[in-house]
Amino acid sequence: MSQNTSSPKTKTILFIGLGIAAVLFCCLTLASLLAVAQFTDFLPSLTSLFGPKWSSAKIVPGGTDFYMAADPNFRDMKNAKQLVDIYSELLERTDGPGEIESTLEEEYSISFKEDIRPWLGPEVAFAIPNLTEAINNEEPALAIIAATIDKKDSDSFLEKLRGNIERDEYTVYTNTYEGVTYYVQEVESEWETPTIFGRLKNFVVLTTHEDLMKEIIDTSQKNQGALLSNENYTQLLDSLPGEAAAVAYYDMEGFTEAFLANMNTGVTPPQEATAQLEAFEAVGVAMRLSNQGVLLDFVSTFDPEALSAQEEAFLANEGRILEHIPAGALGFLSSQNLDAGWRKLWTSLAQNPDFEQQLDDLGSSFNLTLDEELFSWTRGEYAITLLESTSQEDMAPPVSGYSIFEVNDQAKAESLMADISSLAQMMLFQPLETKTIEGVEVHVLEQAGLNMGYGFPPQHLVIGVGEDALEAGVSEDILPISSDETFQAVIGHLPDRNRGYFYVNVKNAWKFAYGRMEEYDREIFDADVRPYLEPLQAIGLATRVSDPEEGEAQGTIFFYIPTD
Predict the structure, then answer these.
(1) Where are the domains of the chain?
(2) Residue 506 phi/psi, 5° resolution?
(3) Looking at residue 130, what is its pLDDT?
(4) DSSP string, 335-392
């Protein structure tokens, strides 16, 4: 594994951000697999004929920035039946597979069932060797690779594809490189993308650049220098679950370098923030199926020196804060050690030469002291919780929520909140009202039907919006989220000893929104959204640093889709 020469501070939020970004991969891949499942009534399991799963990596160049592979034999995979049963009828009703078939027929005169399915093997892959080209506003070279189980049928498909392109009045010529014959479509304009296609042993390959086709041929002929021998790739693949319906790999080093070099914001990012990005080396993602839903597992590798001075910040969250989140919450985010995160942010901002002057100006304007010790009163767990509001006031928002923090120095926390309260009263020309809620003294500001306030239940600080949220936050007698069956089902699929949770009760959330829709919007929702969303009960995400010495972090996103 290559080592980064810098010693950056890696933030947990980056792991969470990578996981959330990967949701798009999951959704697109799952939709594609479900669509393909409509065509593939059966595909025999032929992994033994092709070697290890995702064997297309043995012909993809080793320096490839992005690689994704999926098993089109989705219908026969373990735990796939429930997803097919739930969503296949919807796809048929919305003509999803029919539209795919129609597009192939109309645009390319290709029939999936007749021209592709007879030879399609257990793997389809997509690769972009150089993401820098996309960042530089260039058209990146890309390749689509599909395993073939019948060379004669796949060769017939390629001949038919050539003939169809020629019927569209394009010239297609034959080229041979290193003993491999392939076809090249000529284009007349730089705005057109050519298609280069051929078969390399057990793979059908389509690319957009002839140089890429030659590079793939070289890689396959030499049996070295392939992605399959890339140390970052193999480390990530070994760390991901074996039974995956699809995998993806991102080489972050080249991508980050190009991204930072092409920032056009006019603002130079702080060195600390740049170092955090440069710490990441690669990210691997795998989508797998359980009998209760879909899991998106991801692993990232990074410079282990980034953890040398902050091991405490990556200790596992013990989940104490879960006892202060009600079971009926629409969702929440939990983590720990806000103080460490603030100090790292402060260090980053302080690299700006104008930082001290800007800080003095801000402090003078708001009469509020901002310093590195701002959150030194909390080093434990905290959570941000969203609730359905029960307020009957006309101006009250439909949702409420609160943040709750474990407090290790209440005097400092009270001082901070007193300063913030004075600022709020000064800006809104209204004093805070002191109330007692659940035996806890709470300071509340009522403004336009909105109750905002804070209180100090034992060993905690609660800051809430909405009186019901304040009551839930300070109460010692709530039914906690940890006892909720849906939440229990979700976290049972997430890594333990994690840094905290991101959780959304999708069922409660969409029903809450549905109750506030106009009739017209409900009709659209019922027709186009509800059939797909209704089976999904909840989404959960958790991350952890699994190997600080080697520089490896893991996480899982779970989409809870129960059968009953």
Answers:
(1) 12-272, 310-560
(2) -65, -40
(3) 86
(4) EE-HHHHHHHHHHHHTTSTTHHHHHHHHHHHHT----TTTTTT--SEEEEEEEE----
Residue 2 CA: distances (Å) to CA of 151, 279, 285: 39, 11, 20
Q: Which of 539, 482, 484, 481 is nearest to 506 (CA)?
A: 539
CA distances from 516 to 110, 417, 465, 510 (A): 46, 35, 20, 10
* Burial degree of 290 (CB within 10 A; 0-12, 13-18, 19+): middle
Identify whether the C-beta of residue 153 lies closer than 8 Å to the C-beta of residue 202: no
CA separation (Å) from 214 to 59, 62, 227, 255, 531?
11, 14, 16, 23, 46
Helix (H, G, I), strand (E, B) or coil at 478: coil
DSSP state at residue 316:
P
Token duo for residue 199? 């078969």
Picking from 530, 529, 536, 540, the residue whose alpha carbon sits closest to that of residue 562 is: 536
What whole-number distance in Å separates Cα of residue 3 and Cα of residue 531? 48
Cα-atom radius of gyration of the chain, to the nearest Å? 28
Q: Which of 447, 248, 335 is nearest to 16 (CA)?
A: 335
Residue 40: its pLDDT value, please? Answer: 42
**DSSP annotation of 58:** G
Label residue 34 exposed, middle or buried (CB < 10 Å: 0-12, 13-18, 19+). buried
The predicted pLDDT at position 45 comes to 38
The two structure tokens encoding residue 238: 């070994």
The crossing angle, in degrees rounded to 10, of helices 23-39 and 96-108 is 80
Q: Alpha-carbon distance 15 to 334, whole Å?
A: 14
353: its two tokens: 């030469």
Identify the three-state secondary structure at position 290: strand
Residue 324 exposure: Cα atoms within 13 Å on the Cβ side: 29
What's the distance, CA 556 to chain centroid? 9
Q: How far does Cα 303 stand from its chain's mean position?
A: 21
Q: Tell me the residue ranges of DSSP E strands in 92-154.
A: 120-128, 143-148
Q: Is 387 exposed, middle or buried (0-12, 13-18, 19+ CB in 10 A)?
A: buried
The answer to whether 186 and 172 have CB atoms below 8 angstroms apart is yes
With beta carbons less than 8 A apart as the criterion, state whether 50 and 228 touch: no
Could you tell me which residues are beta bridge partners of residue 379? none
Ordered mean pLDDT values, 10 residues apiece, the chain (564 residues): 35 38 44 42 37 80 92 74 72 54 73 89 91 72 94 94 88 94 88 90 94 95 87 88 87 72 55 64 89 90 64 69 94 91 78 74 68 88 92 73 95 91 77 88 80 92 91 92 95 91 94 89 89 91 82 91 80
Rounded Cα distance between 279 and 4, Å, is 7
The SS3 call for residue 137 is coil
- 120-128 and 203-207 as β-strands: parallel, antiparallel, unpaired? unpaired
